[in-house]
Amino acid sequence: MLSFNILWLSFAALFAFVVLRGAMRQFERRQQLLQRIHSQGRQSVDSLAGEFGVSVQTLRGDIRHLADKGLVLRRQGEVLPFPEQENIGYDQRQIVNVAGKRQIAARAASLVQDHQALFLGTGTTVEQLADALSDKQGLHIMTNNLHALIKLCQLKCELVVAGGRVRRRDQDVIGGDAWRFFQRYRADVGIVSVGGMDSYGQLYDYNDDEVMAREALLAHAGYRVLVLDKTKFDLPLRCAAGQLGDYDAVVTDVPLPDKLRSPLAAQGVRFLG
Questions:
Q1: Fewer CB within 10 A of the terminal residue: the chain, N end or C end?
Q2: pTM of the model
Q3: Which of these, 264, 255, 251, lies nearest to 108 by C-alpha position?
Q4: Among residues 268, 188, 246, which one has the least CA distance to residue 221?
Q5: Cross-strand pairs, 44
Q6: Residue-range domains of the chain with CATH
Q7: Which ranges does the record mark as transmembrane (predicted)?
């Protein structure tokens, strides 16, 4: 009887050790997963399962746990950081979906004619447009995007830059300074991006300062173009920033769902992507 008790206690101790070890591995994996999502943005569940060496079912359990705590968002086979007040850093965004942003830039550039006045807003997708405009002649460009400014200086164009308080992390000018800048001019074409879009075509951004600057730009642009890459889809944020129907053209790297395109196309909105 004593031998049986000793054997049972040994088995119970081993079982407890295995359970504890598994729980520790699960905790460490979830911490690493959270760090990965927040540092690199939207991720595929299938690819993450492969990288972490677990089944898709196990990884979905991890993501469900993190989502229940308000740390991440689940979106149809993908996971993304829970929207915060501020976007991820500019340098991080520059390396996300570069090929898609270049496609968008080339398509948006086709909407610009020689000798037009052009507003360019903030963001990495708009920055890519600077390269795509290299074959245009006689452009008059006005922008609050200081990253794009570096590339725009290589073009043969007249260039005007917003002055005021610089948001150092993103190297742009937003808020009241940008609002006053765009109020002073009129452009033939205004090209902007936003922080995100939900499944109903409502647009969003991270803060009111970005929304304020964009509203002034669009109010003084004759033809309004929205550039939006796929990482912005199904991404509702804190601040409402209009809707797809506010634009004359919407340029994407992958087609928008037909439920969004069809009604707006009937109203004259042009879709490229």
A1: N
A2: 0.69
A3: 251
A4: 188
A5: 78
A6: 2-81 (1.10.10.10), 90-272 (3.40.50.1360)
A7: 6-24
Per-residue H/E/C for 224-258: EEEEECHHHCCCCCCEEEEEHHHCCEEEECCCCCH
Query: Would you tell me the crossing angle of helices 2-40 and 45-52 to the nearest 10 degrees?
Result: 130
C-alpha dihedral (209, 211, 215, 216), degrees to nearest 10: 20
Tens-place pLDDT, residues 238-263 = 889 999 999 999 999 999 999 999 99
Q: Sheet containing 202-205: which strands, arranged edge to edge?
A: 196-197, 202-205, 239-243
Which SS3 state, helix, strand or coil, does residue 220 take? coil
Question: Quick one: which H or E segment has residue 35?
Answer: helix 2-40
Please determine, for residue 7, whether its predicted confidence score (pLDDT) is greater than 60. no
Instruction: Let me know: does 107 contact 130? Beta carbons within 8 Å.
Output: no
Residues 6+ apart with CB under 8 A from 76: 234
CA angle in degrees (0–180, nearest 5) for 231-27-84 = 35
